[in-house]
């Protein structure tokens, strides 16, 4: 996210922020206080009217302006909270140093504490915001769906064994260790009976199971900011997702039987079966809905607008269906997102891609913010029963259990792994086991009658959450730096890497077959074949089902580059009817000597032409399979400029080739056209039939060209005039016009004669400051960010 | 599986192979059983046709290249020692082996693994992957699904990206550089051979 500190003077912004905050809090006050009064007044009114019946109405002055808060109370309060959350988010990024030191989650909890404190000070009752139903049904699903949809499948699958071990065995170990030792601690000091002695074993175990689960929300919030390498990220994150099944089973098991007081072996056995049912059932439900969503998306070519809706609704229903059967909703959601993604991506339009991406990020961002704020508010509220022994022992035990669990499990796991986990890795995994709002909500769900110690439990849970989020969350970043843990690599996959990786996959599969070993590669290969042969045909519309992964990847790269060419240079010279004096003389030979930047003088492009180019590029964008990246929520738009000399050279080559191809009146862009169309293109052609945008440009040249939008190739009408048939896939956005204008204006200042000087970025690095504001405008002008520089996850379901 | 009289005594030069390749005795035994399974006419040597018994290899786009990689150029037959030596490339790397300069580079080091893969591309063994060779591989992998023009474009772009010394071919160093982000030890290892 471009830092806006450069635009605002920080000193000036603080009073603004304070004022804003004050206003918001005042609103809260106003909203809460007249609630009681307004409520009674309205009901009185209604009763009066009803009782009067047929009698004449009491005549009173016509109310010109009246306040009826109750009418809008619920949505208003919700909106107010959301607004508060979003304003907080804005505020944190205005103070740049703060967000560097303190992770956002801590700041948000603090804000929640403040708000809760203010409300309490005002004498009002704090609204029970972290109601479990609200949490589990509204706040949690967007975050999980976001995580599941953008889950990097390949590292997840490669480390699945490790992840499952940590999730299942680790959580079980944590739960029993904490629960058991807590019970033991509570039972000591028999001479001094305290309330702790009333604590039975089973409630202790229940407490242990609640507090032992690593929380995905907290992990996401903290890990997103520290950018560690992919392996560690997926280990901790995957664990936090998959331990939901264990938590659900343990929770229900202990809750059921706490009343009875004993758990037999039979119950334990049933618990294990229940775990399998919960986990596999959740995944199955999710996969089923995912396939339904993929199948539905096959037919959406005529109603593109509601495509994102299908994705969201099917996923949410998967979650709700799983929750209905008390299966693991989180696993259902993850399975749904992961299963549907490759097929849906192949079917839907580019704009729908962008919509889904943005909506998911937006919802999950707001959700996460709200959760942390509510945690703070709920801390202020609520009956707390502070018990020094209990709380401190809990915190200590959590830490100890986590460390022991991780170390022990790693020792076992390393025997089976090719890439072993080092001590540093183990430390990060142990340290990253943060607890969060799920633990709190589960505790909140406990029935007071069955668990008289509920207050104490909640206090302890909150303390653990605070400790992990604040202490561990704040210190993990400097620790990562200190230990020099490998950071996330800027993954810019080259075509070579893609080709060679596929080649190596085939090679390994072949070697495995020769050895007769049915290993990892063998099954992956089989799954791929099955996918290609049967599944893709059902779930992907039209011709896209046959497109191999490498081709789609290649197209995407070409598109990226073409867009960048346009953006960096402002346009490409097109031969016009008149012989041009300048251009062709400057064309360099096919292999330019490295690494001189090329300066070419191009005649000015008429405005219509540039728009055509933009449109062509946009329409071609829709042809290619857009792969979504798992974006960091803070940086949704990446810099379109790529550093690297190699790319520079390639860009030059492409430019030259483009010119040559235009000259030969072949396909317009270097992307060779496939023999048949995707349904997207077909629809685009039909839609652009009567479009008049490209007519003015043609009329400029005064040619009589039969406006045949069907043709993708240029038809030689007169001797050397190429006609460009534009296939519009997206309606002309006014922004692109501004874009070109801006470019031209900026460039004209530097130019002398005809030039649209095609000044490529000088040197391997990004051009200097002059380029920056333009880029910013660029970024905002584009109605959707095109495919940008780096690429984290670009593989379909089966890599 | 073990009903044959497979014991270490039957395997020629067993200890030497253990020493050379780093496989354990159990692995050598297992590989020997596999070798015997493939060697249908029991000559103690494998020929390219024997690999046809492995059905999945026929479906593999680069199956024939892999088979020919086992045989040194000019050789028609393959004995057990060579079989094992080739497979030694795919053993997971030993993290705790300290390398002293006197020892030759082990077969399962990253460099040797990459070299093996490189030779699969570079059929004429001139040390470079030429455009034609790259096209052959692409054609094999992508098959009938793409047009010739698309293949040419991809090959063109691949060479442009990787070729730093502008000789229109990819040398081994350039190959290695383009794979620097990939964990070769992980990618080119088969677990059971550890």
From TrEMBL, chain B:
The protein, known as: Calcineurin B-like proteinous protein 2
Keywords: Calcium, Cell membrane, Cytoplasm, Lipoprotein, Membrane, Metal-binding, Myristate, Nucleus, Phosphoprotein, Protein transport, Repeat, Transport
SMART domains, per database record: EFh (SM00054)
Localization per Swiss-Prot or TrEMBL: Cell membrane; Cytoplasm; Nucleus
InterPro entries, A to Z: Calcineurin_B_homologous, EF-hand-dom_pair, EF_Hand_1_Ca_BS, EF_hand_dom
GO cellular component, one term: nucleus
This protein's record includes keyword Ligase: no
Main localization of the protein described in the UniProt heading: membrane
Pfam families (UniProt xref): EF-hand_7
GO molecular function: calcium ion binding
Family stated for the protein in its record: Belongs to the calcineurin regulatory subunit family. CHP subfamily.
Record organism: Larimichthys crocea
CDD domains reported in the protein's UniProt record: EFh
EF-hand domain residues: 26-61, 109-144, 150-185
Biological processes per GO annotation: protein transport
